[in-house]
User: Which sequence fits this backbone?
């Protein structure tokens, strides 16, 4: 197995190299920086073990640059635990807090080998299941679904609000499939995932010659969703410059492609979503109040998984069965201790985190019963009382401090635009030196 170690501390790097070289099945290559590693790492590498707090290029940025091409284990000091949590959001399955025993790292490597083999050997179709099906119920969920179904019968705009991971796209699809537009297309777009300079053309399309690479005309999401539903996720991240154009579309029901002059009529139902405090954004002139009222005709608050405790076990069991089918695993079940832990955990990442934990446990389990240890929730439990927002705030503060409040550099490390970083600095009331 080819392992690349990326660690700026020479003592730590040499120690890991010496310790892991004792294992004949490991072939090691070491790098003193992420920048150096990016230049030399090739497809022969099976696994990367990387530090987070490194000069030049931070580990988070390094992981983003790798773009999911490699299995990654993160090692980090206590001071950078929040960055390790951020790395998990980026797809990293294991992180270790320094100091740690070499055996702990070896166990993590072996776990990753097991996961990789089972995932790669899977012959099942990786297509997503029907997102309109809710596999569990609770009083809190039923209340939100009842309101959503009422809204679906109309053509009014719906604004979905709730924490990250509660299933806002699932709710948007539910509205679509219970509406008169059910036979039309359901198109989803994440405002935070598309660079600002590309967002307008993605939404409204463009004409041939509108810009250098526009060799042909292209329809935008509004045209593609004609007769159906357009889901605008993370709407609070929409650039203020585009909000006026979106407002006009909602009022006039026409769009104009980038580089064009012809108005094109569109018939689209808008469902939007956010986990941000839009009222604060309005107060800071970062979000148009008139657009908010257009989008918020019918507000739906999606409860967190903490408010839907009775759904945890059914969702976990359903996910476990689906994972076993997907990876052709023997039938598995949870031990009583594992179920107790699932039900008592706070789930700051909500349903998305629950699904991830169950999938991981199923792949790694060596028995037909998933034990408490298979869940690997110990490290997550150290942050039970922290919300996603509080962790994000600490992460931003830590990065800003590491670059002496250079917001451009901090934005680069965090993988976001300076505009988005400024919004989050204001949102969390973070003090930054001028």
Assistant:
């Amino acid at each position: 197995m080819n392992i690349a170690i990326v660690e700026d501390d020479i003592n730590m790097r040499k120690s890991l190299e010496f310790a892991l070289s004792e294992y004949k099945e490991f072939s090691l290559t070491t790098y003193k920086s992420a920048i150096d590693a990016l230049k030399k790492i090739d497809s022969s590498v099976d696994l990367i073990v990387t530090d987070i707090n490194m000069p030049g290029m931070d580990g988070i940025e390094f992981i983003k640059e790798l773009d999911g091409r490699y299995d990654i284990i993160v090692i980090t000091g206590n001071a950078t635990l929040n960055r390790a949590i951020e790395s998990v959001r980026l797809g990293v399955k294991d992180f270790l807090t320094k100091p740690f025993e070499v055996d702990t790292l070896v166990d993590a490597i072996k776990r990753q080998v097991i996961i990789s083999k089972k995932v790669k050997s899977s012959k099942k179709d990786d297509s997503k299941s029907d997102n309109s099906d809710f596999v569990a119920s609770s009083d809190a969920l039923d209340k939100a679904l009842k309101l959503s179904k009422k809204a679906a019968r109309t053509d009014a705009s719906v604004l979905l609000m709730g924490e990250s991971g509660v299933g806002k796209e699932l709710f948007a699809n539910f509205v679509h499939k219970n509406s008169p537009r059910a036979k039309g297309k359901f198109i989803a777009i994440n405002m935070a995932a598309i660079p600002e300079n590309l967002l307008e053309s993605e939404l409204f399309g463009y004409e041939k010659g509108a810009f250098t690479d526009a060799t042909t005309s292209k329809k935008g999401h509004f045209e593609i969703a004609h007769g159906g539903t357009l889901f605008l996720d993370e709407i609070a991240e929409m650039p203020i410059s585009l909000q006026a154009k979106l407002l006009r579309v909602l009022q006039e029901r026409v769009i104009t492609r980038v580089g064009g002059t012809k108005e094109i009529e569109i018939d689209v139902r808008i469902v939007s979503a956010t986990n941000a405090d839009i009222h604060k954004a309005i107060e800071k002139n970062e979000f148009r109040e008139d657009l908010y009222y257009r989008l918020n005709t019918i507000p739906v608050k999606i409860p967190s998984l903490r408010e839907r405790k009775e759904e945890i076990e059914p969702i976990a069991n359903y996910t476990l069965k689906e994972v076993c089918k997907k990876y052709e695993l023997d039938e598995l079940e949870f031990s009583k201790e594992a179920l107790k832990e699932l039900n008592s955990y706070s789930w700051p990442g909500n349903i998305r985190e629950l699904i991830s934990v169950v999938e991981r446990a199923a792949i790694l389990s060596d028995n037909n019963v998933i034990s408490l240890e298979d869940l690997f929730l110990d490290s997550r439990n150290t942050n039970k009382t922290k919300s996603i927002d509080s962790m994000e705030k600490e992460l931003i503060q830590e990065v800003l401090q590491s670059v002496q409040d250079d917001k451009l550099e901090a934005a680069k490390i965090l993988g976001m635009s300076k505009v988005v970083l400024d919004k989050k600095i204001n949102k969390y009331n973070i003090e930054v030196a001028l």
